[in-house]
Amino acid sequence: MLRLAHGALARIGSRILEGDNMPTAKKLANIGYKTFSSSMMLLTVYGDYLCSARAYHYFQPPSSQCQAAEEQNTSGVL
């Protein structure tokens, strides 16, 4: 009885290891490539966002608060 159970477990184990459930090296490589490509795409989009936000603030005219502070600083100097 024990020998029969051991043989059945061995067959099940070999089917699991050699069956369709195990991803092949090609599938694993494809998953890794897609994951890496997706992360690089997201990093590129985020970098573009940061660059455009900085350029937007750079080209904006000075706000009224900055102008008021500048006028206050220069009004005391003779």
Description:
This protein is mostly helical and 78 residues long. The chain has a domain at 22-56. Helix content is 82%, strand content 0%. It is built from three helices and no strands. The protein is rod-shaped and about 95 Å long. The N and C termini lie far apart (106 Å).
Structural class: mainly alpha
Helical percent range?
A: over 70%
N to C succession of SSEs: HHH
Task: Quickly count the helices.
Answer: 3
Number of strands: 0
Major sheet: size, sense and barrel closure? none
- Multimeric organization: single chain
Distance between the termini: 106 Å
Strand content: under 5%
Radius of gyration (Å): 32 Å
Shape: rod-shaped
Mean pLDDT: 78
Low-confidence stretches: none
Which helices and strands appear, and what pairs or packs with what?
Blueprint: H1 2-18, H2 25-59, H3 64-75
In short:
Its main location: mitochondrion. The chain has 78 residues and is mainly alpha-helical.
Structural features:
mainly alpha; 0% strand; 78 residues; 3 helices; rod-shaped
